[in-house]
Amino acid sequence: MTAKRPSPRHLVLAALVVAVVAVLGAAFAGLGDARPGLPTLPAAAAKPAEGHLPFGRIEPPRALPEVALTLDDGTETNLAAETADGWTLLQTMFAGCATTCPIQGVLFQRAAAALDGVPVRLLSVSIDPIGDNPRVLAGWLRQFEAPASWRAARPALADLGPLLDALGARDDGADIHAARAYLIDPAGRLIFITEELPDPDGLAGLVREAIAALSPDFAAPAS
């Protein structure tokens, strides 16, 4: 009995399936290696000391470097201005990221909802200052229906390395940056670094506790 030959359409579909499987396999196999399209980070100034924990309370609070920023609406500003006289939750990301950054966006979206009425800013800082122009950053925020209190920015290329070093935001994983959140006090100092992909409600609780500790008269809305 002669076997029935597959139709051209079936051959095309089979080729597509093989191609998709190959692409996915390569993606999973390369998680830890630099992928095409990943931004190239500046060299680190120094390695963290042995035994250094990458998260937790920062004692004493850490001053952050001068960083020129371009916001999602094209406004030219700087990190000191964006963190002055108020509490700030900062995360690092880039719009071309397809793994942890979308999760980070959802985490900030839910944290923003949990912090509704609480005087805190959210700031997503791109590690791809060449690729993430204001239009791209604005589109990234729209994906998560970001409120007015949540902005995105790209740093000046020369300022990216010092900022990452001050935050401890470098990572050897698939997206080359840490998926943490960084709490900055009204003096512009880093006071807390979360674990990777923090729980949104826990993030909101962290902010409320920090504000209450330094502002005894602060009455946060009920969560």
Automatic annotation (TrEMBL):
InterPro entries: SCO1/SenC (IPR003782), Thioredoxin-like_sf (IPR036249), Thioredoxin_domain (IPR013766). GO terms for molecular function: metal ion binding. CDD domains: SCO. SUPFAM superfamilies: Thioredoxin-like. The keyword Nucleotide-binding does not apply. PROSITE patterns: THIOREDOXIN_2 (PS51352). Disulfide bonds join C97-C101. Keywords: Copper, Disulfide bond, Metal-binding. Cu cation binds at C97, C101. Residues 34-216 form the Thioredoxin domain. Belongs to the SCO1/2 family. This is SCO family protein. It comes from Methylobrevis albus.
